[in-house]
Each structure stands twice: as structure tokens, then as C-alpha cells.
């Protein structure tokens, strides 16, 4: 319990740091964001909106600590202001409509990469020096050297433009009404293939190598020799005895990657114009939509911190050794 | 290549770091196949970066009428939608990309050394505080933080470097701290403390030289991070779009619809260059591990080679 409370304290500090960063950045940067935004929206903004924005972005004459208290209060009560590029939609509403797509893309990619990567790792370790073990690691390291958005561009070009197998942008075909019909789900699935595939391709190497290395250590344990000596089927020894005990580090990295699901797919979302929070963050930056930008950053940070905290709790359950120290 | 890296005037540490293991280390590196390939690739890129103005004189981003040409004997890698020669853009791009990558790499490693050593040496409250800051930076989502910082700062090369260092130092600080901690507990450090040597001297003269290989590994990792992250940032249009670099080349390729018009030659070269540099640095990194860690080097028995093969 003490361990969990300590971790909770740490995550609260981390979240406080990101809120404070959000508060300080516009106040200490050169230039006046509000005038820039006002020029951009060409007078669409109401005077009281401008006033609220000035307060939010620190063009404010009150003492700094008073603004800070105000800002913290607003964030903690979920008031992140109004989006400029989608005026007058509140920031929270914009984010709520986008985050589902990010979770879908990142979650699908993470699950596939983890399952395939771990299986490959198990097989590679089980047949040391075999075809999988000698050919895949260098290949995956080389693929991992490419910027992942570049692989996304390549996949888009090859499978989308040249071969035309998959749609090349957005999460579903324009004009299609979102609904739980087979037609819509199939359409979303088709749009999901390419972006998810490129993330899987880049991250699979890490899963495979991690699993392979722990698995090799496990394979040397006495109980494996024992199981083999008992004459159990190799497949059973491999999965039930070796792989099962080598899973713990993979479970941890799975949890850690949960956090990156939200912020990690950003460039892929941009390449495929996939309507998630990453793509939205870029749009907000380009449109000088500061409230939306800050709201997105806080949401992504909160998601990352929450995921990591959940992993910590899970880890205490899985590995009693953590509790003692 | 390695000596070129070591001679950069960023750290007061290099002479001491290179002092003892120098000859056998360099010899070990150039006789290691992985390192040799990596070093040669890096040397080629560095040569290209220096020779770019000679090989392709004039402004590579000058707009001409020969738009979207396929690769041909006149334009080996074709031209962009604005009629720029892709090969010239790629060769010139190596200058900014390598420069930013190396600067970011050295600066973040330097901060990592300072924070890691101070953390390990002083311990107690200083360690707690520095570790807390490090862990917070490690946890904040890197790319979104990069984007939001870049959005608020005025665009330019300095901003890109600053932003990448701010988001990139924490990882190396953590690695270097744990290594420094184990050396901190050795007897010769205790002896130095008892004999009244100054803290700075103990940290940089006694502890740091014993971490040379891990500092080297961290440095290479940070350079790879710097090159990749710069490319990502610029691809989003958040760098200085007026400079020619691999990331900006990809940004313009995306912006001018190279993918949709089928001009694959516009976006392939810069991406391949980034990958080649990252792969070459990774190879050197594995080789440094092998050369400095005898356990990885001498083993002939395939049963025990997992670390070298896996990494």
C-alpha cells in the first residue's frame, strides 16, 4: 500500500508539472498569442471570448499567483476553454470526439504488435540459431531505423496509391453515417489497416527481442530440463513452462505502451489524416488554436500517467518482490 | 568517426575518457566488422555534408521549371514538384540533419552526465530531487511535448535544438546515474573522498573515466534520437522550413503531394538517409558494447552469445 501511495504521489507531481508547464509557456513566450489568433479568426470572436482567452493565455494584469490559482481551478473542474478553430465548441467536446479514434488505432496496433512480437520471440528463443532467430532480429533492427512516419508514407504510397488496396486517408469514407452496421464497421476496419500496420511493423522488433532475451534466460532454468526429462510434449514445455514464466517483463512493457497509445501514434495519424488527438494537435498548432492545443496536451499527458499508474498497481499484484522495496 | 565524435569540444571529459583504453579501444573498433561498416557509412555521410557546396554549388532549393521529373542521367534522383534537384536537396540536407543530430546528442549527453553524476555522487536529497525531475521528464509524452514547445517558441534552428535537448536528456541521465551509482560505491572513490579531493574532481576525474563505454553508448543513442526527432518535428512543419534538411525534404514532399502524384523519388532518398545514419550509429553502438565488454567479445559458443546477437 505504501508503494502505491508513493507512486500516486509521483504521478500527481508529474501531472502538476505538466499543468504548470501549460500555464507558464504562453506567459513567458515572446509575442501575444491572442492578437495572432484574433487576426486569424477575422473578427469572428466575441469581445467576452477575447477577454476569456486573454485571461487563459496570460495577457492578464492580475498577479501571476492569482492567475495560477484560477488556472488550476479551471483545469481541475474540466474547464479548458473554447476551441478557436472550431468556435464555439468547447475544447473538452472536441477532444472527446477524437480520442476514441486514437484509442482504436493505438490499441489495435499495440495488441497486434505485442501478440505477434511475443510469439516470434518465443519461437526464436526456442529454436536458437534457427531461421527466425538469425534472420528476423537484424531485419527488424534495420526496419526500426526508419522514421516511422516515413514507413507510413511508404505504405500509403505502395498499398494505397499504387496498388489501391486500402483507403489512404481518414477513419471512414466521407458521407458514411457512423452506426453499428457491418458496412460501417468494415469501412472503419479497411481504413485502419495501413496506419495500424505501420505501427505494428516498427514496434514488433522491440517485443520480439525483449521476449526472446527473457525466454533464453528462462530456458536455462532447471524446471525446463525437468519438464523435458519428464517427456512432456515440446509445445507444452515451450508455452506452459518457459513462455509463461518469461512473460512478466512483456506484461510491464505492454502496460507502459498503453500510455504511448495516446501520444505515440501522432505522426502516423498525420500521414493518414486519421482523426485522432495527434492529428488534431497538429491542426490546433497550425490554426494557432492555443486552448485546444493545451487541452490536448493535458489530455494526452493525463492518459499516459493514468496508464502508467495502472501498470504499477498491476505490477505489485504480479510480482511480490516490488512490495518489499 | 569515433575520434571525430570524441574530439568535439563539448565535454571536459573526453581526454580522460580516451586516455586509458585509447589504443586497444580504437583497434578493437576498427577490427570489429559491425563497427567498420558503421564507421564507413558515417564517414561517407560526413564527407558528403562537407562537400555538398562543392558537389552541388548554388541554392538547392531554387525553384526551376523542370517539375516532377523522374530520375534520369541529368537528375539522378529526379526533381520535386517545384523543380528542385532531389539529389542536391538530399546531399545538402545532410548538413543540417547531421549538425542538429550531433549537437542535440552532445548537449543531452552532457546534461545527462551532469545530472547523473551529481545524483549518484551527492545522493540523499539532491539525488531524490534530480531523480524526480528526471522521471517526470521521462514520463511526459515526448512528441506532444515537442510539438507544443515548438508551437510557442519562434521557429529556427536554435529552437529545434533547444526543444530536442529539453525532451531528450532524461533518458541518458537515468542510464548514467545508475552506472555512476555502482562506481560511487567502489573503494577508490571512498579513498578519494577521504583524502579530501573536491567533489567536481572526483566526479569527472575518478568516476567518469570508468564510464567511458556507457557514455559513448548514450551519446550514440542521443544522436540517433536527435536526427530522428528533428525529422519528425520538421515533417510536421514545426522546424525552420526555410532550411534544407532531411526532415524538411519530407515535409515538402508531403506538402506538395508527392505521394498522391506517385513521385516516390522525392520522399524515398531522405528517409533512406535517416535510416542509414541511424543504422550505422546503432552498429557502432553494438560494436562498442562488444569491444568494451569482454564477455560479449570472446565467446565462440553460440549458447552464450544471446546479448550480442539480440541487441
Q: What are the low-pLDDT stretches of chain A, counting only 5+ consecutive residues below 50?
A: none
Low-confidence stretches of chain B: 1-19, 298-311
**Mass-distribution shape of chain A:** globular
End-to-end gap of chain A: 12 Å
Helix/strand order of chain B: HHHHHHHHHHHHHHH
C-alpha Rg of chain B (nearest Å): 22 Å
Largest interface: A-B, 56 and 48 residues
User: Percent range for helical residues of chain B?
Assistant: over 70%
Rg from Cα of chain A: 24 Å
Distance between the termini of chain B: 21 Å
How much helix, percentage-wise, in residues of chain A? over 70%
Form type of chain B: elongated
**Count of discrete alpha- or pi-helical segments spanning 4 or more residues of chain B:** 15
Q: Largest sheet of chain A at a glance? A: none
Biggest sheet details of chain B: none
Number of strands of chain A: 0
Secondary structural class of chain B: mainly alpha
Q: Quaternary state, please? A: heterodimer
> How many β-strands of chain B, per DSSP?
0
> Helix and strand string of chain A, N-terminal first?
HHHHHHHHHHHHHHH
Mean pLDDT of chain B: 81
What does this entry look like structurally?
With 325 residues, chain A is mainly α. Helix content of chain A is 77%, strand content 0%. The N and C termini of chain A lie close together (12 Å). With 311 residues, chain B is mainly alpha-helical. Chain B contains 15 helices and no strands. The radius of gyration of chain B is 22 Å and the shape is elongated. Classes of the chains: A mainly alpha (325), B mainly alpha (311).
Can you tag this structure with a few keywords?
heterodimer, A: about 325 residues, mainly alpha, 15 helices, globular, B: about 300 residues, about 0% strand, disordered N terminus
Amino acid at each position: 500500500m505504501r508503494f502505491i501511495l508513493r507512486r500516486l504521489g509521483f504521478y500527481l507531481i508529474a501531472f502538476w508539472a505538466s499543468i504548470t508547464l501549460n500555464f507558464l509557456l504562453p506567459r513567458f513566450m515572446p509575442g501575444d498569442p491572442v492578437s495572432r489568433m484574433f487576426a486569424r479568426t477575422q473578427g469572428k470572436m466575441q469581445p467576452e471570448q477575447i477577454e476569456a482567452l486573454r485571461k487563459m493565455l496570460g495577457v492578464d494584469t492580475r498577479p501571476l499567483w492569482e492567475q495560477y490559482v484560477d488556472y488550476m481551478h479551471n483545469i481541475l473542474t474540466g474547464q479548458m476553454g473554447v476551441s478557436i478553430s472550431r468556435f464555439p465548441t468547447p475544447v473538452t467536446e472536441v477532444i472527446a470526439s477524437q480520442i476514441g479514434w486514437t484509442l482504436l488505432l493505438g490499441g489495435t496496433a499495440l495488441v497486434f504488435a505485442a501478440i505477434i512480437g511475443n510469439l516470434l520471440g518465443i519461437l526464436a528463443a526456442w529454436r536458437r540459431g534457427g531461421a527466425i532467430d538469425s534472420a528476423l532480429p537484424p531485419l527488424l533492427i534495420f526496419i526500426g531505423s526508419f522514421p516511422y512516419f516515413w514507413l507510413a508514407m511508404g505504405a500509403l504510397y505502395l498499398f494505397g496509391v499504387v496498388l489501391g488496396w486500402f483507403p489512404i486517408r481518414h477513419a471512414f469514407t466521407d458521407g458514411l453515417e457512423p452506426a453499428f452496421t457491418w458496412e460501417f464497421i468494415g469501412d472503419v476496419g479497411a481504413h485502419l489497416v495501413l496506419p495500424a500496420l505501420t505501427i505494428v511493423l516498427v514496434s514488433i522488433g522491440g517485443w520480439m527481442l525483449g521476449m526472446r532475451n527473457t525466454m533464453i534466460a528462462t530456458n536455462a532454468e532447471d524446471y525446463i530440463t525437468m519438464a523435458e526429462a519428464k517427456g512432456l510434449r515440446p509445445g507444452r514445455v515451450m508455452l506452459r513452462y518457459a513462455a509463461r514464466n518469461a512473460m512478466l517483463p512483456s506484461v510491464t512493457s505492454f502496460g507502459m505502451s498503453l500510455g504511448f497509445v495516446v501520444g505515440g501514434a501522432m505522426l502516423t495519424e498525420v500521414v493518414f489524416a486519421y482523426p485522432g488527438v495527434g492529428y488534431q494537435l497538429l491542426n490546433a498548432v497550425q490554426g494557432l488554436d492555443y486552448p485546444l492545443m493545451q487541452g490536448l496536451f493535458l489530455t494526452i499527458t493525463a492518459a499516459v500517467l493514468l496508464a502508467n499508474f495502472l501498470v504499477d498497481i498491476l505490477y505489485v499484484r504480479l510480482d511480490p518482490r516490488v512490495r518489499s522495496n | 568517426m569515433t575520434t571525430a565524435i570524441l574530439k568535439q569540444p563539448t565535454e571536459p571529459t573526453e581526454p580522460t575518457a580516451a586516455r586509458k583504453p585509447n589504443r586497444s579501444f580504437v583497434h578493437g573498433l576498427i577490427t570489429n566488422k559491425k563497427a567498420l561498416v558503421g564507421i564507413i557509412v558515417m564517414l561517407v555521410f560526413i564527407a558528403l555534408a562537407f562537400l555538398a557546396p562543392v558537389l552541388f554549388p548554388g541554392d538547392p532549393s531554387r525553384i526551376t521549371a523542370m517539375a516532377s521529373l523522374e530520375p534520369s542521367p541529368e537528375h539522378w534522383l529526379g526533381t520535386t514538384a517545384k523543380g528542385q534537384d532531389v539529389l542536391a536537396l538530399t546531399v545538402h540536407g545532410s548538413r543540417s540533419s547531421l549538425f542538429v543530430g550531433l549537437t542535440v546528442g552532445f548537449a543531452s549527453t552532457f546534461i545527462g552526465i551532469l545530472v547523473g553524476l551529481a545524483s549518484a555522487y551527492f545522493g540523499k536529497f539532491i539525488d531524490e530531487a534530480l531523480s524526480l525531475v528526471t522521471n517526470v521528464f521521462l514520463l511526459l509524452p515526448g512528441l506532444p511535448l515537442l510539438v507544443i514547445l515548438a508551437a510557442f517558441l519562434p521557429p529556427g534552428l536554435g529552437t529545434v535544438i533547444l526543444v530536442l535537448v529539453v525532451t531528450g536528456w532524461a533518458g541518458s541521465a537515468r542510464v548514467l546515474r545508475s552506472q555512476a551509482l555502482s562506481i560511487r560505491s567502489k573503494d577508490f572513490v571512498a579513498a578519494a573522498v577521504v583524502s579530501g579531493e573536491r567533489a567536481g574532481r572526483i566526479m569527472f576525474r575518478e568516476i567518469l573515466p570508468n564510464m567511458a563505454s556507457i557514455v559513448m553508448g548514450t551519446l550514440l543513442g542521443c544522436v540517433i534520437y536527435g536526427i530522428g526527432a528533428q525529422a519528425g518535428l520538421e515533417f510536421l512543419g514545426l522546424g525552420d522550413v526555410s532550411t534544407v534538411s532531411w526532415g524538411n525534404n519530407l515535409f515538402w514532399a508531403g506538402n506538395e503531394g508527392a505521394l498522391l502524384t506517385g513521385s516516390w523519388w522525392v520522399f524515398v532518398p531522405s528517409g533512406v538517409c535517416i535510416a542509414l545514419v541511424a543504422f550505422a550509429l546503432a552498429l557502432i553502438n553494438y560494436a562498442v558494447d562488444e569491444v568494451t565488454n569482454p564477455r560479449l567479445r570472446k565467446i565462440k559458443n553460440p549458447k552464450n552469445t544471446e546479448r550480442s546477437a539480440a541487441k
